[in-house]
Each structure stands twice: as structure tokens, then as C-alpha cells.
Specification:
With 197 residues, the protein is α/β, with parallel strands linked by helices. The chain has a single domain, classed as Alpha-Beta Complex (Maf protein). 31% of the residues lie in helices and 22% in strands. The chain contains five helices and seven strands, in the order βαβαβαββββαα. Bound molecules: 2'-deoxyinosine 5'-triphosphate and magnesium ion. Magnesium ion binds next to loops. Homodimer. Its EC number is 3.6.1.66.
């Protein structure tokens, strides 16, 4: 596999994947560069939405495609925002509004546990009967106010107790190896290596 379309329009994800693939012998091309439109994400599970995005990009380009469907899951909110993380604060999508809504919904709740979850799906073709699938997770705690300028999405509220920082205060070198996305990608690349044995 030489070229792989990245089925995402999220600038934060694109930055992280570009860095994660720097050491991998595959050229990752963001779908926007190939004129692929944004896919619908109508499903209630991460895996189904990731598969829909990967298929859409592969069908449009004729290339293998990688999709990431991810989100923040908060047990005290019944798992919300979950698969609706990107549009939690309403349309059009806005990280600032998503973070505001999250803080409002949590109020003064003392159970502020949360985790990020990501599913990666790689299809070799649009009708691939055997998509490669991997998942990753990272646990944290939600602050009462944002901290840090890095990362994207909910990172300024996502506190990592072991590191004493929010995900937005980590460098990409610090975030990528431990993130839900980094872990899922490591698992996916291991699967891919087995495939080509
Ligand atoms: O590492 C992360 N750090 C902070 N926030 C994150 C992270 N990973 C996912 N998230 C949040 C952002 C977005 O609110 C949602 C993903 O939604 P999701 O539909 O997968 O992505 P998206 O619509 O932004 O772009 P696209 O579908 O084109 O890949 O979870
Ligand atoms: Mg999306």
C-alpha cells in the first residue's frame, strides 16, 4: 500500500495523523486534497460511522482509505457526548461551543471522569469485505475551566492526573503515544503488518 486517503476534515486529527505517519512508509493524503465531500455520520456507534467515512472516501477516490471516528465519553452524562461529540454544541461544529456545553451539563458534578475513545477503520476498497479495525482509549478527568492552547476539541478540559496537565498542555510528541488515536493506530499498523506477511 503506497497511498492512503485520510477520510477526515478535522484539522486537529490531520495534524496528529501526519505526525503519526511520519515514520510509516505510506503516503497519507487528506480527503480534502482530493476533493472528497464530507461523509454522513448517521449511526449511533463509532464503528459504523468510521466505516461509513472510510467507504465514502475510498469510493470517491478509488484508493484505500483510513477513517477515525472518535469522541469524549462521560459516564456521569450517560456516555454523552459520545458519538455526537463533534456536534454537541450544535451546528455548525464548534470546539468552543462544545466545551461550553460540556461544562454547563456537568455543572458542579464531582464525578468528572471521562475518556476519549477512537475507532480506526481501514478499507482497501469501498466494498472491502474485511475492513481492518482498531480501537483505543485514554482516561482522564474534566476540569471546571479550560487550560492550554495545544491539541484540539475537548483537550483544554481533559486533565491527565498522572501527567499533571491537560491534553492541550502536552506537546504532540507527548500526546500521540498515549492518546486513544495513537494507541488505536499502533494496533492498526500491527494488524496491517500481519496482513502483508
Ligand atoms: O484527541 C482528541 N482531543 C480532543 N478532542 C477530540 C479528540 N479526539 C476526538 N475528539 C473530539 C473532537 C470532536 O468533537 C469529536 C470527533 O468527532 P468525529 O466525527 O470523529 O470527527 P470530526 O467530525 O471532527 O471530523 P471527521 O469526521 O471529518 O474526521 O471528538
Ligand atoms: Mg465527524
Amino acid at each position: 500500500m503506497k497511498q492512503l486517503v485520510l477520510a477526515s476534515n478535522n484539522a486537529g486529527k490531520l495534524r496528529e495523523f501526519a505526525r503519526l505517519f511520519a515514520q510509516v512508509d505510506i503516503e497519507l493524503v487528506p480527503q480534502g486534497q482530493l476533493g472528497v465531500s464530507e461523509a454522513e455520520e448517521p449511526h449511533c456507534t463509532f464503528i459504523e460511522n468510521a466505516l461509513a467515512k472510510a467507504r465514502h472516501a475510498s469510493r470517491a477516490t478509488g484508493l484505500p482509505a483510513l477513517a477515525d471516528d472518535s469522541g469524549l465519553c462521560v459516564p456521569a452524562l450517560g456516555g454523552a457526548p459520545g458519538v455526537y461529540s463533534a456536534r454537541y454544541g450544535g451546528e455548525p461544529k464548534s470546539d468552543a461551543r462544545n466545551n461550553e456545553k460540556l461544562l454547563a451539563e456537568l455543572g458542579q458534578s464531582t464525578d468528572r471522569r471521562a475518556f476519549y475513545y477512537a475507532v480506526l477503520v481501514l478499507v482497501r476498497s469501498a466494498d472491502d469485505p474485511r475492513p481492518l479495525i482498531a480501537e483505543g482509549r485514554i482516561d482522564g478527568v474534566l476540569l471546571y475551566a479550560p487550560r492550554g492552547e495545544g491539541g484540539f476539541g475537548y483537550d483544554p478540559l481533559f486533565w491527565l492526573p498522572q501527567l499533571g496537565k491537560t491534553a492541550a498542555e502536552l506537546t504532540p510528541e507527548q500526546k500521540n503515544p498515549i492518546s486513544h488515536r495513537g494507541r488505536a493506530l499502533a494496533a492498526l499498523l500491527a494488524r496491517l503488518a500481519e496482513e502483508s506477511l
